[in-house]
Amino acid sequence: MSFDFDAVVVGAGAVGLACGRALSKRGLTVLVLEKEGHIGQGVSSRNSEVVHGGLYYPTGSLKAKFCVEGRRALYDFLTSHKIAHWKCGKLVVATEEAEVGRIEAIFQQATANGVEGLEHLTGAQARALEPELNAHAAILSPQSGLFDSHGYMLALQGEIEDAGGSVVTSAPFEGAEPLPGGGFSVRVGGEGAMMVTSRLLVTAPGLSAQAVAATVDDYPADDIPVRHLGKGVYFRLVGKAPFDRLIYPPPIPGALGTHYRKDLGGQAVFGPDLAYVESEDYSVDPAKAEEFARYIRRFWPGVKADRLTPDYAGIRPKLHGAGEPQPDFQLHGREHHGIDGLMALFGIESPGLTSSLAIGEAVAEALTEAS
């Protein structure tokens, strides 16, 4: 049977585009569908743009593997495509004696994960690097950094299109039917509504992962994990940025916690916090500035609440609720749902952006090996 495309990818965020690129690199014709009017308008546009080193994740997990592999590949990609980035390094800070054991555990975890160049710092050594920092001790991760995520996604789109593929916006995926001899009939909505056929199907739509999977005929409902929405807000500092490096206190349950970055424009940004919500609400309450300031004073005593201004909010597609253990990325292939040629991605939150190239390679390898 002949198909319109070798592969259809649902979602033109960083991960969907990386999957499309990896499939295109293998000589496949690829169609990427995006319901919004532009690429990268979902989870990929509302994050910290941090290149994560791979410090925190359980050794052997997909998060640990993909973060380290993806980070190495990402720096090479950014350099070769001349995309703005800054390997500024990160300080994971114990602000008091009671936190030293927690950051030491992070050091051991990161070492087991193969993260390069880690250093233990005393409080004095940390303050020598960042004089305004309150630190009892710290870990330096020189591999951590920042990058222009939108420039990155545009470059991924360019590679897909250079290989003969298509990235189509304002084209919502409305469902798919597995065909008797293999492959899929895919329903595309929007002004140019149509049906296309594809040998392979990848669903990587971020917050819509569960809803999209449910529109694939014969997809077993019990293989679709429960979705939780984890909202995080950011505040921007008015005035001079206090630090050059990323500053992270020890993680909070379910997330890395409110941290500091000096963005590529030189401005200081703090966030995100974590609050579980029932709907996609991207508002930022200015009254949270004082709460943010109290948290930030742990590592930067000089912060003033009246210098913090609401910036933006993001929603993370979590697979766990408040107080529940944080699960791994979930890549569901045939062994999960029983459908040949389908890879469905769930729970691709942090460090999904850093991991995106590695996730794309893993998805493409699994689908092309199986076909």
Question: What can you tell me about this protein's structure?
Answer:
With 371 residues, the chain is α+β, with helices and mostly antiparallel strands. It has helices spanning 14-25, 62-80, 100-112, 123-129, 149-162, 209-214, 289-296, 334-337, 352-370, and strands spanning 5-10, 30-33, 50-51, 85-86, 90-94, 119-122, 137-141, 145-147, 166-168, 173-178, 184-188, 194-203, 228-237, 246-248, 259-262, 268-271, 275-277, 308-318, 330-332, 342-346. The strands form four sheets. Strands 1, 2, 9, 10, 11, 12, 19 and 20 form an eight-stranded mixed sheet that branches. Strands 13, 15, 16, 17 and 18 form a five-stranded antiparallel sheet that branches. The chain has a four-stranded mixed sheet with strand order 6-7-5-14. Helix 1 packs parallel to helix 9 (352-370). The radius of gyration is 21 Å and the shape is elongated. The two termini are 14 Å apart.
The gist of it:
With 371 residues, this protein is α+β, with helices and mostly antiparallel strands. It is built from nine helices and 20 strands. The strands form four sheets. Strands 1, 2, 9, 10, 11, 12, 19 and 20 form an eight-stranded mixed sheet that branches.
Overall shape: elongated
- Using only C-alpha atoms, the radius of gyration works out to 21 Å
The count of helical stretches stands at 9
Poorly predicted runs are none
Average residue pLDDT = 97
Instruction: Quote the distance from N terminus to C terminus.
Output: 14 Å
Give the fraction of residues assigned to helices: 25-40%
What structural category do the secondary elements indicate? alpha+beta
Number of strands: 20
Q: What's the SSE pattern? A: EHEEHEEHEHEEHEEEEHEEEEEHEEHEH
Beta-strand fraction estimate: 25-35%
Main beta sheet, described?
8 strands, mixed
